Amino acid sequence: MSFPVTRMRRLRRTPAMRALVRETRLSPDRFIAPLFVRRGSGLREEIASLPGVHRLSPDEAVVEAQALRALGVPAVILFGIPERKDETGSEGWDDSAAVQETVRRLKAQVPDLLVVTDVCLDEYTSHGHCGVVRDEAVDNDATLPLLARIAISQARAGADVVAPSDMMDGRVGAIRRALDAEGFEEVAILAYSAKSASAFYGPFREAADSAPKFGDRRGYQMDPANRREAMREIALDIEEGADAVMVKPALAYLDVIAEARRRFDAPIAAYNVSGEYAMVKAAARNGWIDERRIVLEILTGILRAGADFVLTYHAREAAAWLREGSV
Prior knowledge:
Elements: H1 15-20, E1 31-38, E2 44-47, E3 50-56, H2 58-70, E4 75-81, H3 98-109, E5 114-119, E6 132-134, E7 137-139, H4 140-157, E8 161-164, H5 171-181, E9 188-195, H6 202-208, H7 227-240, E10 244-248, H8 254-263, E11 268-272, H9 274-285, H10 291-305, E12 309-312, H11 315-324
Parallel strand pairs: 1-3, 1-4, 1-12, 4-5, 5-8, 8-9, 9-10, 10-11, 11-12
Antiparallel strand pairs: 2-3, 6-7
Helix pairs in contact: 2-3, 3-4, 4-5, 7-8, 8-10
């Protein structure tokens, strides 16, 4: 039937009607909030390129997590800011490092919070690359045991989920075998499976002081032009034992998320990354956009594409807006 019998506007007429027929539901329980943590006490250092995001000491990370949990956000992911860096990134598997200390505090003081930990070497290495460097190239196979050591240390501290973000071949299987051998069969793996060598990571690299000191990461992170390759990466990580997979970044990769949703039954995460966040904040500060509306629209779009949950620096603000009913 066509117009005038069929009138699509009938289902848009009132807020109640729009809510009733809404296809994609945005809610705080689909967010994971990234937190940057460092050793110390009472530290809350704002990151210039990520307004509203801070480097936190473990005690302040607990305060932030409690606020997130009160707003209905169920999970955080922790990134470490080390006190020292070396060629192998050894602070990453130090049981007294900031991430491990924060995990212990969170599990003690916010026990119903899901704690995810980033597994990578880039924050911890003096050269800023995600693996062992030999002759100015990252040695894939030499890196795997170190990633496994980080995952075991984080699991020992109480992490619920470890999330390898390095993009080394075979790392999911290596981490799964290592966790199981140490009795951590219940610890899940969220694999950064389709992680592109993106220009959207700039603010994160400032926050974590993790920019490479030479070269770039295009030799191990994905070419942004390749969607079919992303599907191969996801399939391999699931085969190796990933419990959930991730597409990163999100906004320029909605087609990758949608294709992954069509092909795979595993839970799919999307990372609404630092550059995406910073652009919204900059435009909002200049009065060019309605920040609240655009953030909720972006997050809805990521979920509509097929993501089950979103890692986003907007988590706390978006959760508060949703609680107020500002959709």
